[in-house]
Amino acid sequence: MAIKSKRYQEARLEASTNLELYWWVFMRVSGVVLVFLLIGHMWMNAVLVDLNSIDYDYVAKRLSQTTWKVYDWLILALALLHGGNGLRYVLDDWVRDPAKRFWTKVVIYSLLAFLFFLGSLSLFNYDYGVN
Amino acid sequence: MQVTLKILRFDPAKDKKPRWETYQVEAEPTDRVLDLLHKVKWYQDGSLAFRRSCGHGICGSDAMLINGKNRLACKTLVKDLGSVITVEPIRGLPVEKDLIVDMEPFFAAYRAVKPYLINDEPPPQRERLQSPEERARFDQGTKCILCASCTTSCPVFWVNGTYIGPAAIVQAHRFIFDSRDRGKRERFKALGSGSGVWRCRTAYNCTEACPREIPVTQLIEEVKRAILFDSF
Amino acid sequence: MYRGSEGQWAFYLHRISGIGILVFLVLHVLNIASAMWGPEVSNAFMKFYHQPVFQLGLLVLIAGVLYHGFNGLRIILMDFTTWGVRYQRQLWYGVWVLFVVFYLPFLVKIGGGILGGSHGD
């Protein structure tokens, strides 16, 4: 195929990878998993217990069990990826200025990466003195 | 009946921003919006600019944003709109004057999907035969008149205009599902990029806007599935 | 405003709820992660978030999660079945039925807590 692009941006659009397809599939797969994980998560922590009784001890007790560590980490990882990509869709659709779009993405991806690091750390690296 | 016609006008020589202009027009309930625009242009204000050609819903020239929805001015009757009618140019394409927009980005997207039969196999003695079922498979896409009603009704298209748009995907569908065509991979390339079919968020404005009643979203989803099954 | 019908509003609501959930996720992870700094810091955060305003916010959030989730299932049906697009409108009403069914327990429990003046102390 002849190269027709005049600018880098056009070349990038023309270059075909399956990346967008993979993200599209990921959004659907992670979405289905998240629906069930989140309804379970909300049910356990907002309907089965009084929300207002939640304090350090409750969190410590819950997160010292491996099941909930894994359960919550799965939510963390999938939700950040799903949400991060969703936000990328929004920015691509609705931010007009390319420079602004780029820097917003840089800031948001950094924030989400930091959040993933922080969340994972608090889930796995501490037993909150329970054990 | 008396109709209040509000038109969003823009004169690049004078205006910085589009402005609303109001006209009082005498109309029959069975008049079309196109007739009202004619009455304004011919008897009230000759500077009003809009495109129209056949006036019978087949050339696809007069797609406009009428009372908040994309429609063809020549297929929309006054009695279906009421006595206050607003007319704006279709969104997401640069306005040249009044209701006339620059259609070039729209046609560029159309050309990107290679809207022509691709088949390098040596042609058979007589013709490339096709069963009625095979012909019916892509029938809906053939009804498209390239009026841009669908593409310019899409919330993803409005702001950046980089999305290839429903019309181009419908055109791609017309050839991808044609049993005689061998060019689907080339079209998948244009459709699989960051500005391609994966940016469809299924808002259904396109399906509702289509004056030819093409189930646009249905065709887009079929193209998505075709690419999906081709890649995995 | 473009006068789209159900499909357009389903899309806009999906976007807004998605962004809302992401914002909440940031606050929520920061809140839970504060446990790393010990009970004093953590409990101070918790108490702060137990104010009625945030509980109302939580009700909005749960509504957002339920809508986003169920509408997401609708989108998946449209993407992977041959009939999903044709019945997208009915599917959307189905989303709202599921939404109400699942939202009621949360509304009763958390809403009751707010009206009952429970602040966790």
TrEMBL record, chain A:
GO CC aspect terms: membrane
Protein name according to UniProt: Succinate dehydrogenase
Location of this chain's protein in the cell: Membrane
GO molecular function, one term: metal ion binding
Superkingdom of origin organism: Bacteria
TM annotation in the entry: 21-43, 70-90, 102-124
SUPFAM superfamilies xref list: Fumarate reductase respiratory complex transmembrane subunits (SSF81343)
Claim: Protein biosynthesis is one of the keywords in the record: no
From TrEMBL, chain B:
SUPFAM superfamilies, sorted: 2Fe-2S ferredoxin-like, alpha-helical ferredoxin
Protein's pathway: Carbohydrate metabolism; tricarboxylic acid cycle
Name recorded for this polypeptide: Succinate dehydrogenase iron-sulfur subunit
Location of the 4Fe-4S ferredoxin-type domain: 134-164
Any single Pfam family the record assigns to this protein: Fer2_3
CDD domains: fer2
Names of the cofactor(s): [3Fe-4S] cluster; [2Fe-2S] cluster; [4Fe-4S] cluster
Gene Ontology molecular functions: 2 iron, 2 sulfur cluster binding; 3 iron, 4 sulfur cluster binding; 4 iron, 4 sulfur cluster binding; electron transfer activity; metal ion binding; succinate dehydrogenase (quinone) activity
Cofactor binding annotation: Binds 1 [3Fe-4S] cluster. Binds 1 [2Fe-2S] cluster.
Keyword vocabulary terms for this entry: 2Fe-2S, 3Fe-4S, 4Fe-4S, Iron, Iron-sulfur, Metal-binding, Oxidoreductase, Tricarboxylic acid cycle
Catalysed conversion reaction: a quinone + succinate = fumarate + a quinol
Gene source species: Thermus parvatiensis
GO terms, biological process: respiratory electron transport chain; tricarboxylic acid cycle
Enzyme Commission code(s) on record: 1.3.5.1
Record-stated family: Belongs to the succinate dehydrogenase/fumarate reductase iron-sulfur protein family.
InterPro entries: 2Fe-2S_ferredoxin-like_sf, 2Fe-2S_ferredoxin-type, 4Fe4S_Fe-S-bd, 4Fe4S_Fe_S_CS, Beta-grasp_dom_sf, Helical_ferredxn, SDH/FRD_Iron-Sulfur, Succ_DH/fum_Rdtase_Fe-S
Record-annotated 2Fe-2S ferredoxin-type domain positions: 1-91
Taxonomic superkingdom: Bacteria
UniProtKB/TrEMBL annotation, chain C:
Gene Ontology annotations of biological process type: tricarboxylic acid cycle
Keywords: Heme, Iron, Membrane, Metal-binding, Transmembrane, Transmembrane helix
Family, similarity comment: Belongs to the cytochrome b560 family.
GO MF annotation list: electron transfer activity; metal ion binding
Record has Endoplasmic reticulum as a keyword: no
Organism: Thermus parvatiensis
Domain of life: Bacteria
Coiled coil regions in record: none
Subcellular location: Membrane
Residues spanning the membrane: 12-33, 53-70, 91-115
InterPro entries tied to this protein: SdhC_prok, SQR/QFR_C/D, Succ_DH_cytb556, SuccDH_FuR_B_TM-su
Cofactor section: heme
Main location: membrane
CDD domains in alphabetical order: SQR_TypeA_SdhC_like
Name this protein carries in UniProt: Succinate dehydrogenase
GO cellular component: membrane
Signal sequence segment: none
